[in-house]
Amino acid sequence: MRPKNLNTRIFLDGGDPDETKEGIRLTGFIDGQTTNPSLIAKNPVARRRMEQGEKFTKTEILSFYRDVVRELYTLIPEGSISVEVYADSSTTADEMLKQAKEMFSWIPNAQIKLPTTHEGLKAAEQAVKSGIRINMTLCFTQEQAAAVYAATKGARKGDVFVSPFIGRLDDKGENGMDLISNIIKMYKNGDGHVELLTASVRNIDHHLYALKLGSDIVTSPFKIIKEWAERGLPIPGNDYTYDPKNLKPIGFKDIDIAKSWQDFDISHELTDRGQAKFASDWNSLIKE
Ligand code: E4P
Residue 199's beta-bridge partner residues? Predict the structure, then answer.
């Protein structure tokens, strides 16, 4: 059962509907799901097929992704399900938008993931105008979150998510959870149209601290959802403190979110690296 005092939506981060079924059984609820190309490549059916040496054609892999997403929709019909476009360093905003339109038609509750790059933001600006709900992925800085806010001004609350990747910042020795609190603080000066989705969750403390900070959404892999359920779905109270261990703090920046999105420096090496990895995991599934 969903705890009464839970103010954060809980999403499952994965590409295997069996995990979603089990996650729902363990917790009694799951509010939504996020997928990405690497998670789809890890889907057990796709993996079995690859192990047999049978790659997909471009059309087959897209219909495979669509079938997975449709199954997720039957499990979480009222929630939001994030579906990610293919993008590499040469993909244009128009190409992303074309994919976004197609993927948005797959299920009634799709949320299209676009990278927080220049082309991704250009596509986002157009997508929200066409009524496509989006989730801006691979966000690693407060500037990128400010640009997401600025590029999507006028969108309805719930139509835009921004996904800061906590675990990947931790991997670099920086305290990823600081980025969550910094964005929450910065967005207090705004109209609330962008929802914050804590992503790249690696351990139960990321999950719990996201609840404590009041992240709108947290997306956690199955093993964290399972651990949270086994602990009795705790919601951290005032006595909870997050231990950043030896991670370097990320300081808050006083950023004016009223500026236009092109005025922000949105570059980050982890965004570029993350985009390249999603593209190569996707391409590894496809026949030459
Ligand atoms: C979900 O939206 C993200 O794609 C995912 O959380 C990334 O997680 P990772 O950094 O563990 O790959």
Answer: 165
Q: Of the residues 4, 113, 129, 277, which is catalytic? A: 113
CB of 79 within 8 A of CB of 102?
no
pLDDT at 1 over 90: no
Predicted structure pTM score: 0.98
Q: Could you tell me if the CB of 135 is within 6 A of ligand 1?
A: no
207 lines ligand 1 (CB under 6 A): no
Amino acid at site 100: A
287 is catalytic: no
Cβ–ligand 1 distance for 84 under 6 Å, the answer no
pLDDT for 194-233, tens place per residue? 999 999 999 999 999 999 999 999 999 999 999 999 999 9
| Mean pLDDT rounded to a whole number for the chain | 98
| Torsion region of 28: left, alpha or beta (phi above 0 gives left; psi -120 to 50 gives alpha) | left
Tokens of 96: 């992303």
pLDDT digits (tens, 9 = 90+) for 41-69: 999 999 999 999 999 999 999 999 999 99
- Both tokens assigned to 107: 């299920």
Ligand 1 centroid – CA 40 distance (Å): 12
